[in-house]
Amino acid sequence: MPRKIILDMDPGVDDAVALCLALADPGLEVVAVTATGGNVGPEQASRNVQAIIERIDPTRWPRIGAADPLQPLRSDARDLHGPNGLAGIELPVAEKANRHASVKVIADEVRNASGEITLISTGPMTNVAAVLTLEPDIARSLRQVIVLGGSVRVGGNATPAAEFNAYCDPGAAREVFQAGASIVVVPLDISEQMVFGYDLLEFVRARTSRTATFLAELLPGFYRAYRERFGMEGVCLHDIAAVLFATNPELFATDLMHGDVETAGELTIGATVFDRRSRPDGKPNLEVAVRVDVAAARNILFRVLENAC
């Protein structure tokens, strides 16, 4: 039986690839895709979620949630993902008369399938924090929460100390870490290993599915941005790591840790602190991914995309 998931994301090119992966994997049932600002502002993120789903046109459409247009964010990543978050490609989008807030969509779907839903967050944790704190019963009703965020040993990518998703809304990240739900953290240490050379671009260009043709249009600008900004002949698809944890947890090794987020530091705001010491008074609140089988992860992405619609 497919695992029911909600994807809360801030598309973003790697979010778009993660969404394609989730929609194409027969082991998942994507019941909702909810937008949060992050890589782009909240309005653009909401538009991108809808546009990607309309473009792929999956057999079973998930519910769509819109980000709070007043969502406060410390940063964005348009310098890497392009002004619209999709590497500059323009996707048409139908006008929706009634847009449902992401937080409401998440809460509704979790209540409709109590104990069955895994919530996967690949952007700033604003919506996840709101759901877990404003709707306390939701934390108990979720099967699992998987968040892409923070770093254990590698420092940051938004600042020297802070990973992007935690940095954008550190208060939300702290609330999620402390919410008491079953939370798995897939940190930057893991996600930065999801690097793909031009073999991925060649792969999607050689196929004719709706998913492949979309990715063949989307990815070239992302490869170009990585080459210009980092000198890389490849791209890092951070967000697929969180989806892969839901579908293939055996690829990962995890440790139980106590984690928290700095919300006030002048130089360290958004930094995540994971206590790895063995202490009798230590009370871990998080399961943290510490290793991943990169080769197997790559193979799964190619295999799933091979059979995408």
UniProtKB/TrEMBL annotation:
Record's keyword terms, sorted: Glycosidase, Hydrolase
Domain Inosine/uridine-preferring nucleoside hydrolase: 5-297
GO molecular function, a single term: purine nucleosidase activity
Alphabetized Gene3D superfamilies for the sequence: Ribonucleoside hydrolase-like
Database matches in Pfam families: IU_nuc_hydro
Superkingdom: Bacteria
InterPro entries listed in its UniProt record: I/U_nuclsd_hydro_CS, Inosine/uridine_hydrolase_dom, IUNH, Ribo_hydro-like
Gene Ontology annotations for the cellular component aspect, listed alphabetically: cytosol
EC number(s) on file: 3.2.-.-
Gene Ontology BP, a term: purine nucleoside catabolic process
Protein known as: Pyrimidine-specific ribonucleoside hydrolase RihA
Gene responsible for this protein: rihA
